[in-house]
Backbone:
């Protein structure tokens, strides 16, 4: 089990990572990460929605993810706040596959900024912009 110092639990911390962090994804998992200047260790939180399955399945996925991060904590060199989101396809994974996918995400976190994707800010378009697109034939 992850030690208390490695757990991200506060809703505000989750929101801060989502809004200001960067993300990377693979077929089974999405990771959002943000440097944490207030700590000298990483913290990780998990989000597994009802789309993944019923409670038993969701809890199994969270247990596997917690253990995968616990076993690979040496791979995380810097103090990051991490939020890991399990996609519905993660329900079919065995432990070894979960570990491989976690290692894949952690390796790609360390790549240069050109490889990282920033969460896109949604912009509101006015009704006139939408109508202008329709006239041009763009939908």
Residues:
């Amino acid at each position: 089990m992850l030690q208390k110092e490695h757990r991200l639990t506060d809703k505000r911390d989750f929101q801060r990572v989502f809004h200001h962090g960067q993300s990377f994804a693979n077929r089974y998992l999405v990771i959002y990460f943000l440097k944490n200047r207030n700590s000298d260790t990483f913290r990780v939180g998990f989000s597994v929605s009802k789309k993944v399955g019923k409670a038993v399945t969701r809890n199994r996925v969270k247990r596997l993810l917690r253990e995968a991060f616990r076993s690979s904590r040496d791979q995380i060199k810097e103090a990051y706040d991490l939020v890991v989101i399990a996609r519905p396809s993660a329900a079919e994974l065995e432990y070894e596959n979960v570990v491989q996918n976690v290692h894949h995400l952690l390796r790609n976190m360390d790549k240069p900024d050109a490889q990282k994707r920033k969460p896109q800010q949604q912009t509101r378009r006015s009704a006139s912009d939408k109508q202008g697109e329709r006239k041009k034939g763009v939908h």
About this structure: The chain has one domain: 4-136. Strands lie at 22-25, 29-35, 43-48, 80-86. The first strand starts at residue 22 and ends at 25.
